[in-house]
Specification:
8 helices; 0% strand
Length: 284
């Protein structure tokens, strides 16, 4: 198997190459956990390495349609792939963690810093292994807008995420999580003050918008298709990945299913909004 595919790889080859990316992601995550030592939430154990392998593979698979349909050069595609991970996951969760647990702010900041480095490695390797050698850049495609034209769209995506977060979060709380928190004190779960939650999501929302902007601008695909890809990508990068790595194994199945369903609607619908704002109706 050649490192860079000469032409667009098939589904089975994409899966194999994504597994390779997942393997490298797992090793890099284990190294980071070893470097951070006691301040890391995860140890470089065999169980965690297997989880990192799964989540790294899922992230690469979610990124694969964007890479395979990129209209940018290889270097710029790496930056776009890195940007969506850095903004949506590393920075977003780092800021959220710092606000939710101020006493552990240093841990959140260090985790975000190393997460940005690992995501850069994943982006470079994913593009190297998936982007065909015969893929010709077409960097002049896409709408030309002023900085304000892009800025207000990023802010609207952020507002959409903010609204979806509270709509589906409140729905989940009424149906399941509030009673779970009250009836299961052994898990040590508690909600931060409402003001802190509002502030965290007001910051995190525009980061979803920025990450989405870079990856959408790099991709040459119809808007409807792009919206589905982006919704899935935001769900995996900003939801499934961090949740499975940190929380999934410590909580009962019902709580996990309820939480992942909530995150799916929040992030997937944000992706739909972002694709419709950043890509013209007839844009490809």
């Amino acid at each position: 198997m050649k490192i860079t595919p000469p032409s667009k790889p098939g589904i089975s080859e994409v899966v194999v190459r994504s597994l390779l990316v997942g393997f490298v992601y797992a090793l890099a995550s284990a190294l980071v956990a070893a470097i951070l030592g006691s301040i890391s939430r995860l140890a470089p154990s065999l169980g965690n390495i297997l989880v990192w392998l799964i989540t790294g593979t899922l992230v690469c698979l979610a990124l694969s349609p964007f890479i395979l349909h990129s209209s940018w050069s290889r270097a710029k595609t790496v930056l776009a792939v890195w940007g969506v991970q850095a903004f949506v996951r590393s920075l977003g969760l780092g800021i959220e963690g710092s606000l939710f647990k101020p006493t552990a702010a240093l841990n959140a900041i260090l985790g975000a810093f190393f997460g940005i480095l690992v995501s850069l490695l994943l982006a470079w390797l994913a593009v190297l292994l998936l982007m065909p050698a015969d893929q010709t850049p077409q960097e002049n495609r896409g709408p030309k807008r002023s900085w304000w034209g892009w800025t207000w769209r990023v802010l609207v995506v952020g507002l959409a995420y903010f609204l979806f977060y509270f709509i589906f979060g409140a729905t989940n709380a009424l149906l399941y999580t509030r009673s779970f928190y009250e009836n299961n004190p052994q898990y040590g779960l508690s909600l931060p003050p409402a003001g802190i939650i509002f502030l965290a999501q007001l910051i995190r929302g525009p980061l979803f918008g920025l990450g989405s902007l870079f990856i959408v601008r790099a991709t040459n695909a119809p808007r409807r298709q792009l919206a589905i890809w982006l919704g899935i990508l935001l769900f995996i990068v900003g939801g499934v990945g961090p949740y499975v790595e940190v929380t999934f194994r410590t909580m009962p199945l019902g709580f996990n299913l309820a939480t992942l369903t909530e995150i799916f609607f929040q992030n997937f619908l944000t992706g739909i909004v972002a694709a419709n704002l950043f890509r013209p109706k007839n844009g490809a």
